[in-house]
Specification:
Order of helices and strands: HHHH
Helix content: over 70%
Strand content: under 5%
Distance between the termini: 27 Å
Number of strands: 0
Shape: globular
């Protein structure tokens, strides 16, 4: 049951990030949505968002992944 709750939270986060991207896209929001897709098991969509984030701000994906590993 906790897995289902977590999946619903991730799905909600993806929806929220998508709405923000529609209003004001940014590399950081693409990264966050990509991370949510990754947790949801959707690697293809995650990689597309990571690529988009990189196109907007080169180096951001590695930078943010490194910061998350240190937390």
């Amino acid at each position: 049951i906790f897995f289902r709750l977590e999946q619903k939270k991730i799905a909600g986060a993806i929806e929220d990030f998508t709405k923000v991207i529609e209003i004001k896209p940014s590399a950081f929001i693409y990264y966050l949505r990509g991370s949510a897709y990754q947790k949801f098991g959707k690697e293809d969509l995650a990689n597309l968002d990571f690529e988009k984030a990189e196109s907007l701000e080169p180096g951001i994906v590695n930078k943010l992944k490194a910061e998350n590993e240190n937390d």
